[in-house]
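Design a sequence for this backbone.
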């Protein structure tokens, strides 16, 4: 993101713990047919990123609507795995730092409880300063190879999908190429073929945000959601092919966005007919009062916190 004050606040820790080049090998499994759009409540979806280097993903499941009892958050996102670069093979590789790996390996206690509540759990993929990114694959075959790593991970750990965040790739490092027009489209196209019924979302930022169509294909026709990346602001992601119900123009950093701003963003979201509201950086502190300001606007209900 362009402005440091609204960047992911725990990113320094993430980068320290995820710069190793260890690779993981997972068995290839068959894709499962799980609907990516199960609606748990009226008023649109709430999506929440959790920095698992410092906070528990399970915190997302502690908030419900006081009226009706539905979960506040429809989608919880594990932030974040990395796209790394193997300088020996000169290929992009998926890397899960120890904290991300801990969530995945312990999915029965870290992921399944949320899914049992009706929530979806995605794995976000982020650049790691090594030159590999979503926008510099030079062939469909190389894009497909990385997409296969993603789908193998989703299937092996029974996740509900993948989130793309095109930051911190540092394109050009390790002799890698600069962003090109075809790469991201090819990657998403191959991923959608490999997991036709899972969620694919896009954090609207970085070189990928201006490279969303190629060869007659549009990323917006292949993904399920996209959200604004600049916290504390209201900006509609320009992703042709997505409907209003699949876009989040409002983005809130739970740790730094004011109550009045969060409420204003919710009002704009509702009045303009958009169907997703994005939250970032959920910690362990009870935020039910803060969430209730938004929830009363979007869902007509306050929020209850259950430790």
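Sequence:
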């Amino acid at each position: 993101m362009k402005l440091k004050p609204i960047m992911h606040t725990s990113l320094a820790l993430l980068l320290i713990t995820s710069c190793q080049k260890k690779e993981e090998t997972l068995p290839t499994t068959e894709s499962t047919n799980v609907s990516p759009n199960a609606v748990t409540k009226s008023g649109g979806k709430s999506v929440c990123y959790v920095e698992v280097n410092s906070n528990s993903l399970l915190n997302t499941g502690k908030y419900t609507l006081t009226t009706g009892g539905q979960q506040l958050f429809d989608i919880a996102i594990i932030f974040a795995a990395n796209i790394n670069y193997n300088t020996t093979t000169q290929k992009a590789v998926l890397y899960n730092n120890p904290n991300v790996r801990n969530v995945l390996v312990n999915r029965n206690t870290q992921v399944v409880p949320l899914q049992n509540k009706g929530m979806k759990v995605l794995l976000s993929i982020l650049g790691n300063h090594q030159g590999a990114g979503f926008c510099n694959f030079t062939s469909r075959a190389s894009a497909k190879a990385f997409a296969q790593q993603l789908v193998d991970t989703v299937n092996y750990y029974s996740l509900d999908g993948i989130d793309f965040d095109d930051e911190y790739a540092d394109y050009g490092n390790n002799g890698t190429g600069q962003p090109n027009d075809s790469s991201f489209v090819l990657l998403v196209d191959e991923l959608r073929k490999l997991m036709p019924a899972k969620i694919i979302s896009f954090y609207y930022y970085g070189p990928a945000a201006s490279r969303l169509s190629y060869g007659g294909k549009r990323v917006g026709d292949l993904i399920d959601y996209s959200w604004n990346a600049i916290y504390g602001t209201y900006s509609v992601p320009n992703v042709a092919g997505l409907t209003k119900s699949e876009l989040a123009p409002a983005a809130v950093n739970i740790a730094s966005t004011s109550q009045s701003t969060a409420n204003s963003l919710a009002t704009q979201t509702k009045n303009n007919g958009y169907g997703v509201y994005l939250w970032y950086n959920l910690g362990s502190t009870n935020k039910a009062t803060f969430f209730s300001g938004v929830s009363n606007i979007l869902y007509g209900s306050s929020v209850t916190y259950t430790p």
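The chain has one domain: 46-305.
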